[in-house]
Specification:
With about 350 residues, this protein is mainly alpha-helical. Helix content is about 75%, strand content about 0%. α5 packs parallel to α16.
Length: about 350
Amino acid sequence: MLQFLTRRFLLLFPVLVGILLVTFTIVRLIPGDPCVVMLGERATPEKCEAFKERYGLNDNIGIQFGRYLANMFRGDFGTSIRFGQPVVDIIAERLPMTIELTIGAMLFSTVFGILLGVISAIRRNSIIDTLTMILANIGVSMPVFWLGLMLAYVFALLLKDTPFFIPPSGRFSSGVSLPSLIKVWGIENPEGFKKFVLDFLSNSVFWNCLFTGNWRPLKDALWHLILPSVAVGTIPLAIIARITRSSLLEVMGLDYIRTARAKGLIERVVISKHAMRNAMIPIVTIVGIETGALLSGAVLTETVFVLPGVGTALVAAILARDYPVIQGFTLIIAIIFVVVNLVVDFSYAYLDPRIRLE
C-alpha cells in the first residue's frame, strides 16, 4: 500500500506540470488580446504596452511559465487580470459552491441509480425493468439546461403557493448570508495558506454553520440546492442505473451465486452480501468519473440556477482572457481528478481483496 501511495504521489507532480504547460500554451493561442478585452475602446497601444508589462505578458512563454511555477510552489497563483483579486481568493469563494452541488447531485444519482439498477436486474425483462431502462435512456438524452428550466417552471411557478414550492435560483434566500470566520474569530490579517483555508471554510455552508452555530443558512442552502442537484444528477443517475443493472446481471450468473443459493440463503442476502460487492467495481468507477466531472464545474446548471460555482467562473475567465484564473482553476480541477481516481483505486482493494494495489 505504501509503495502504491508513493508511486502515485510521485507521478502527481509531472502530471500537474504537464497539464499546466498545455493549459498555459492553449490559453495564449486563443484569439484576442486580454488588454483589448479589459480596456475595450480605451485600449490604446501605450496602455496595452503598460498592461502587458504589468502582468508580465511581454516575456516569452517559457519565461512566463517558469515564473508561474516558481510562484505557484510558494502558494501564489497570481492575480486576476479582470478583478485585480488574488486567484486563491476566487478559488476559495467559488469552489465550496461546486463541492456542495456535486455532493447533492451524486447522493441523488448514486442512491436512486443503484436502487433502480438493482430492481431492474432482479426483475429482468419485466415491465418494471423495461420502464426503468426507458427512463434511464430518457435521462441520458435530456439536456441539463432544459431539465433545469422545466424544474424551475414547475416547482417555482406552477407550485408557487403550495407546500411543494422550491426556490428556482440562487444559493440563499434574500437576507441570508454566511459570516466571515476571519471576522467572527477576530483573526487579524491572515496570509497565505491560512487565509485560503479560512476563506474556504467561510464560504462552505456546512463548516461555516458548524463553527458559528447558526444553522439557518444551512437549511436555506439545502432548500435552494434541491433543483440544481436533481437537474445535474439526472444524467449520472441514468448511467449508474444502466451500469448497475448490467454489472449485477453478469455477477448473478456466476458459480458462487448458484452455490450461495444452493446453501439455502435467502435472495436478499445473496444479492446484498454476495452479488453486489463484486458488481460494485464498475459502479464505483463510473461514480468516480462523474464526481470528478461535476467537481470541475457544471456550467449550464450553475448558469440556469444562478450559482456562483467553478464552471461559470472558469467560462467567464476564458472569455475575458484572464490567464491566472484559468490556470488556477485548471490546476485545482486536475488535483481533484487525481484525488478522486486515488480514492477509486483504494475502493477496488476494499471491494475485492484479490486486488493488490502494489
